[in-house]
């Protein structure tokens, strides 16, 4: 198969996973985007990245450095996409305007891999098949539910790889704000203790309640505070993300629906946060990033057929 275009522009949204539930099964697409301009060139591959403010290495807390050349997630995605269609490889010039903080639990790596795979479809002018793209992305190290949320937008609940994910339009009252720290985790995240049958039943009911509340505007938004009360994972992870744990407790004491996204350290509020609380968080070293629940997470200049 031959390339039919030599330039593709697209953007992919950040994703918050877990929301005080198992990180691998629920995701919300956010209004923070990485924007890509991808040119097929005759020369060597190069990556030009901009806007990495607020991005930090998850282990050291130092400012993140974007991978370059063939190691970049988007370049790896392009290569895998071209290989899948038996297309010839080409040099790539990638311009990335980074809007998703790196190493902060907001899905930057998964977004980059997905962008590369979708870009390969654009260069070849072939329809994007969500299931195929998802499987290819997972094989490259992306998180399945993040890819599904970035493709579909809104709220995604995934049961297992053999069944399609459930996609819900986010309720209009959601007003997410991301609190992104500039420091590293203290230690490794431990696995929580095995739940009793009764406790597992309560967790299943709470997560079902959470999914309904995120995607159903007819239910009281106030119930989100109870639905995001995590008695299992967050206490187990408190030693590894103590600042995140403390911020969640403080925000919730002030009536804000705050949770950990993924394994942290970013804290995400799902409801409005007053300027007083925002300023106090900034003084404590948090980057306060305004966002939204994104109904459309993938934007392309070549109108892919999904």
UniProtKB/TrEMBL annotation:
<dbReference type="GO" id="GO:0005524">
    <property type="term" value="F:ATP binding"/>
</dbReference>
<dbReference type="InterPro" id="IPR020568">
    <property type="entry name" value="Ribosomal_Su5_D2-typ_SF"/>
</dbReference>
<dbReference type="InterPro" id="IPR036554">
    <property type="entry name" value="GHMP_kinase_C_sf"/>
</dbReference>
<dbReference type="GO" id="GO:0016301">
    <property type="term" value="F:kinase activity"/>
</dbReference>
<protein>
    <recommendedName>
        <fullName>GHMP kinase N-terminal domain-containing protein</fullName>
    </recommendedName>
</protein>
<keyword id="KW-0547">Nucleotide-binding</keyword>
<dbReference type="InterPro" id="IPR014721">
    <property type="entry name" value="Ribsml_uS5_D2-typ_fold_subgr"/>
</dbReference>
<feature type="domain" description="GHMP kinase N-terminal">
    <location>
        <begin position="84"/>
        <end position="146"/>
    </location>
</feature>
<keyword id="KW-0028">Amino-acid biosynthesis</keyword>
<keyword id="KW-0067">ATP-binding</keyword>
<dbReference type="Pfam" id="PF00288">
    <property type="entry name" value="GHMP_kinases_N"/>
</dbReference>
<dbReference type="InterPro" id="IPR006204">
    <property type="entry name" value="GHMP_kinase_N_dom"/>
</dbReference>
<keyword id="KW-0808">Transferase</keyword>
<dbReference type="GO" id="GO:0008652">
    <property type="term" value="P:amino acid biosynthetic process"/>
</dbReference>
<keyword id="KW-0418">Kinase</keyword>
């Amino acid at each position: 198969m031959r390339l039919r275009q030599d330039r593709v522009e697209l953007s992919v949204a950040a994703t918050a996973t877990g929301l005080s539930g198992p990180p691998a099964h629920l995701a919300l697409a956010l209004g923070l985007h990485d924007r890509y301009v991808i040119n097929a060139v005759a020369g060597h591959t190069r990556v030009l990245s901009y806007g990495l403010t607020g991005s930090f290495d998850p282990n050291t807390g130092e400012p993140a450095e974007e991978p370059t050349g063939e190691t970049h997630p988007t370049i790896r995605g392009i290569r895998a996409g071209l290989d899948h269609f038996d297309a010839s490889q080409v040099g790539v010039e990638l311009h990335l305007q980074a809007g998703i903080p790196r190493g902060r639990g907001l899905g930057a790596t998964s977004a980059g891999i997905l962008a590369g795979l979708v870009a390969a479809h654009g260069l070849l002018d072939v329809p994007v098949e969500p299931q195929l793209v998802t499987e290819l992305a997972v094989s490259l190290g992306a998180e399945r539910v993040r890819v599904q949320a970035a493709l579909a937008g809104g709220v995604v609940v995934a049961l297992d790889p053999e069944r399609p994910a459930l996609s819900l339009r986010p309720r209009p009252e959601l007003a997410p704000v991301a609190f992104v720290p500039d420091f590293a985790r203290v230690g490794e995240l431990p696995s929580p203790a095995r739940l009793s049958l009764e406790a597992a039943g309560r967790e299943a009911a709470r997560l079902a309640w959470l999914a309904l509340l995120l995607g159903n505007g007819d239910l009281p938004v106030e119930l989100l505070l109870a639905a995001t009360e995590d008695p299992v994972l967050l206490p187990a992870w408190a030693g590894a993300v103590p600042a995140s744990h403390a911020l969640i407790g403080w925000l919730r004491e002030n009536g804000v629906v705050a949770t950990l996204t993924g394994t942290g350290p970013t804290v995400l509020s799902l409801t409005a946060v007053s300027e007083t609380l925002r300023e106090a968080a900034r003084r404590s070293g948090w980057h306060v990033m305004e966002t939204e629940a994104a109904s459309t997470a993938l934007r392309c200049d070549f109108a892919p057929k999904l």
